[in-house]
Design goal:
Blueprint lengths: L1 H7 L8 H13 L3 E6 L7 H25 L3 E5 L10 H18 L3 E3 L7 H11 L7 E6 L5 H11 L3 E4 L14 H18 L4 E3 L3 H14 L7 E5 L4 H9 L4 E7 L4 H10 L1 H13 L1
Parallel strand pairs: 1-2, 1-8, 2-3, 3-4, 4-5, 5-6, 6-7, 7-8
Helix pairs in contact: 3-4, 6-7, 7-8, 10-11
The structure holds dihydroflavine-adenine dinucleotide.
The site of dihydroflavine-adenine dinucleotide has 23 residues, from strand 4 and strand 7.
Length: 287
């Protein structure tokens, strides 16, 4: 396990918040914003969900204190399944409100990550429940691979809600999700255009050069300023591209996970790209 963690370390900023903070500071020093993510998902016990809520609140307090001290620029990405969504939605909603009260008080933004399709509707419904109460402090994620997302993009445009658009990282059946990458790209770009035009500060979350170039062309053509959207990438993936985009005047937010529950996240990163698997195999062969 220790060896695997050494490999996962490329994608994970540490096992504790204390270890992750210097990473946030380094990214900020390079002109990048950060989304801090405490790893963990699909919790089945109320005590663990409550502990996750409290840990998220600690992250909120820490970001606010660090912002006061040294101007830290970070928000928080959370998973509702970590706060009891699969146990009882009402219980999860209570936890979410509790967290958002703290986020509003400290002026820290919370993004609800999108997880597997078993909880897509529930995640959107919980978001719609809290968004009117916390419009400046909560946002959502949509996944371009899901066939339902066309409607969900319109739903979020109608709400004028802040959305991160990504391709989608879970294994979903073809009855509900596009499997072909060119189709997913096409959808991603169509949704990006709508979100850039109709929602506040959308996050364009991809490492894909074609999508990055198409977004750049679209905003230039429409005269949309760089302050009206941000690119988002994952910690440890294409750091040079992250730097280049910042140098070219774009906002870049780096999704920075930390915590001991890194296995599912690391597995998704490996599944996404064969280069990541090669990276692991190379390291295995070296020892
Ligand atoms: P992908 O990995 O598909 O790569 C596409 C192309 O990009 C490649 O063919 C290549 O051209 C180029 N490329 C990528 N990496 C490269 C490299 N290292 N070197 C050279 N070229 C490279 N998912 C989810 O389901 N729910 C969520 O809430 C989130 N949240 C999230 C936040 C952020 C900030 C990001 C960036 C991503 C997510 N995701 C996510 C994950 C997302 O859905 C998706 O699985 C990954 O981002 C991978 O898809 P990409 O579009 O990044 O490129």
């Amino acid at each position: 396990m220790k060896f695997s963690y050494r490999l996962a370390r490329r994608f994970v900023a540490g096992e504790t918040l204390k270890e992750a903070l210097p990473v946030v500071k380094q990214l900020n020093a390079k002109g990048m914003r950060v989304a801090l993510d405490l790893l963990g998902e699909y919790v089945g016990h109320r005590e663990i969900a409550d502990a996750a809520r409290d840990a998220y609140i600690t992250v909120v307090h820490t970001i606010a204190a660090e912002r006061e001290k040294n101007g830290m620029d970070a928000n928080v990405s959370i998973k509702l399944s970590m706060m009891g969504q699969k146990i009882d939605e009402a219980f999860c909603l209570d936890n979410l409100r509790h967290l958002l009260d703290s986020a509003k008080e400290r002026d820290v933004f919370i993004r609800l990550d999108m997880e597997g399709s078993d909880i897509t509707e529930s995640t959107l419904a919980l978001f719609e429940e809290v968004y009117p109460e916390y419009p400046d402090h909560v946002g959502i994620v949509l996944q371009a691979y899901l066939k339902r997302t066309e409607q969900d993009v319109r739903r979020m445009c109608d709400l004028n809600a802040p959305v991160r658009i990504c391709k989608g990282a879970y294994k979903e059946p073809k009855s509900i999700a596009y499997q072909d990458m060119s189709e997913i790209r096409e959808r991603f770009m169509a949704y990006t255009k709508l979100l850039v035009l109709h929602t506040p500060n959308p996050g364009i979350a991809t490492h894909d050069d074609r999508l990055i170039s198409a977004t750049r062309e679209f905003v230039t053509e429409k005269g949309i300023s760089n302050d009206q959207f941000e690119f988002q990438m994952l910690y440890g993936i294409r750091p040079e591209t992250q730097k280049q985009l910042v140098a070219q005047g774009y906002h870049m937010r780096v999704y920075t996970p930390y915590g001991t529950e890194w296995v599912p996240y690391f597995t998704r990163r490996l599944r996404e790209r064969k280069e990541n698997v090669w990276f692991v195999l190379r390291n295995l062969l070296r020892t």
